[in-house]
Amino acid sequence: QAVKLRSRRPWPRAGAGSRIVARAGGYKVAILGAAGGIGQPLSLLIKMSPLVSALHLYDIADVEGVTADLGHCNTPAKVAGFTGQEELAGCLAGADVVVIPAGVPRKPGMTRDDLFGINAGIVKELVEAVADHAPGALIHIISNPVNSTVPIAAELLKQKGVYDPRKLFGVTTLDVVRANTFVAEKKNLPLADVDVPVVGGHAGATILPLLSKARPKTSFTDEEVEELTARIQNAGTEVVEAKAGGGSATLSMAYAAARFIEASLRGLDGDGDVYECSYVPSQAVPELPFFASRVKLGRDGVEEVVAAELRGLTDFEARALEALKPQLKASIDKGVAYAQQQP
Ligand code: NAD
Ligand code: LMR
Question: Is the bond preceding residue 216 a cis peptide, omega within 30 degrees?
Answer without folding.
Answer: yes
